[in-house]
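Re: [ENG-882] Designed sequences occasionally contain unexpected residues at chain ends

Forwarding the minimal case from QA. Structure tokens:
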């Protein structure tokens, strides 16, 4: 975000904050229909940068709602993606974050329920909630778990493997990032000291006393440049040899938003 700000990008919470004549960009987390409608009312040129996996969840939820199903969204309250998804689906959407939320669900027709999930939760994160939903509502339907962001599950699996090879793990990313915090939890659950690092300057060299092998991972939205800066910060403490752990090769590629593809073709 700081890199984008240095290039003149402004971050806003509401469409009303966007100056006239500026281009509106909808974040990868997705936005509600109200945001899209308000953008259109103001006549703003808009670029929809919603992640295709998130858009897929929106469409699935909309299809369930049109078929008369009450929709249950598995996700974290106040997360931008969750707010956007709930604002894209007609009718009431029930938000559940853990098993206890399932126990208190009050639905109109238990035989007409469907669920979708926040994409930045892993299969492991949602497994128990989905199982609990199916026990309480045997006729509930939902999408294939492949709809969950592959990068989230892959990173968590990698951290578990990494924990067996290192003495400490640094997780690079923002403290308000759902998947970054989960990586930190996974590392701690694996029995390895772990610290969440938002910037190289936040590294405390006292953490490194007696540590010979440090593992580094990063949240999904942490840029590669930030990871390199963290490594450089470690070099200021001691000599560093860097090796990359073998893992699942991610070769999924998403196309640019249509507006940008058209512009690229013209130029």
């Amino acid at each position: 975000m700081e890199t984008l700000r240095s290039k003149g990008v402004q971050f806003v919470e509401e469409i009303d904050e966007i100056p006239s004549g500026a281009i509106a960009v909808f974040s990868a987390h997705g936005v509600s229909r109200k945001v899209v409608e308000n953008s259109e009312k103001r006549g703003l040129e808009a670029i929809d940068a919603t992640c295709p996996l998130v858009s897929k969840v929106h469409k699935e939820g909309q299809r369930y709602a049109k078929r008369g199903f009450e929709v249950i969204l598995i996700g974290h309250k106040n997360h931008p993606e969750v707010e956007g998804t709930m604002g894209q689906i007609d009718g009431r959407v029930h938000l559940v974050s853990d098993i206890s939320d399932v126990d208190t669900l009050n639905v109109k027709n238990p035989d007409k329920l469907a669920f979708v999930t926040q994409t930045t939760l892993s299969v492991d994160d949602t497994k128990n909630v989905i199982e609990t939903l199916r026990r309480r509502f045997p006729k509930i339907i939902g999408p294939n778990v492949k709809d969950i962001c592959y990068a989230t599950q892959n990173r968590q699996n990698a951290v578990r493997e990494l924990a067996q090879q290192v003495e400490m793990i640094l997780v690079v990313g923002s403290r308000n990032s759902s998947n970054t915090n989960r990586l930190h939890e996974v590392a701690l659950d694996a029995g390895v000291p772990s610290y969440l690092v938002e910037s190289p300057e936040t590294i405390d060299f006292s953490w490194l006393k007696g540590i010979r092998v440090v593992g580094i991972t990063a949240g999904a939205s942490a840029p590669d440049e930030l990871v390199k800066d963290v490594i450089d910060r470690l070099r200021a403490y001691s000599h560093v040899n860097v090796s990359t752990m073998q893992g699942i090769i991610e070769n999924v590629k998403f196309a640019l938003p249509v507006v940008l593809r058209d512009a690229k073709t013209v130029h």
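QA comment: On inspection the terminal residues look reasonable. Residues 7-48 form one domain. Proposing we downgrade this to a documentation issue.
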